[in-house]
Amino acid sequence: MIKRTFISLFGGLLFGILLSSCGGGGGGGDAMTANLANGEAIYKKACIACHMTGVAGAAALTDKPRWEENAAKGMATLTQSAMSGYTGKYGVMPEKGTCMDCSEQDMFDAISYMMDKAGVKPVK
Ligand code: HEC
Questions:
Q1: Does residue 2 belong to any structural domain of this protein?
Q2: Do 34 and 112 contact (CB within 8 A), yes or no?
Q3: Rounded to two decimals, what is the model's pTM?
Q4: Structure confidence by residue, pLDDT tens digits, 73-104
């Protein structure tokens, strides 16, 4: 009983914290902030094979127009496409860029890193 109460109390607390941390940024509900150092590590591990020079239809880091096109979709959509994989008009982006132990935050960071290198600012 005591344990139950504790868990529900704790759960409520956690939920409150999560909710309040989503407040910033003026809507959109995206609480993630980019860790570019982690993004670089993930990129070098999993994304570089395709995204450095644009292998198999991937957006190269030097291809600013393609990254602007990506950025326009918004970070939440891009992170989701990277997480689940995405087939578009250029080719096939594999699920998590084949980095199966990567988290959503890892995808977000790697995308932020690539955009930064391409000289494109995330739209949201
Ligand atoms: C096997 C090659 C390959 C690897 C590895 C790869 N990608 Fe991709 N990625 C692609 C291709 C091809 C596309 C273009 C799909 C299209 O728009 O037709 C793409 C598109 C994307 C997009 C745009 C998705 C959208 O909604 O338009 C994002 C974001 C992305 N990749 C992130 C990553 C990240 C992050 C990694 C590393 C964790 C990664 N990719 C690794 C091939 C790859």
A1: no
A2: yes
A3: 0.82
A4: 999 999 999 999 999 999 999 999 999 999 99
Q: Give the C-alpha distances (Å, rounded to integers) separating 24 from 13, 62, 104, 116, 119.
A: 19, 32, 20, 22, 25
Two tokens at 95? 């699920």
How many folded domains does the chain comprise?
A: 1
- Supply the CATH number for residue 59's domain: 1.10.760.10
- Go through the chain and tell me how many residues it has: 124
| Residue 87: domain span | 34-118
Pocket of ligand 1 (CB under 6 A): 42, 46-47, 49-51, 56-59, 70, 73, 77-78, 81-82, 86, 88-94, 96-99, 107, 110-111
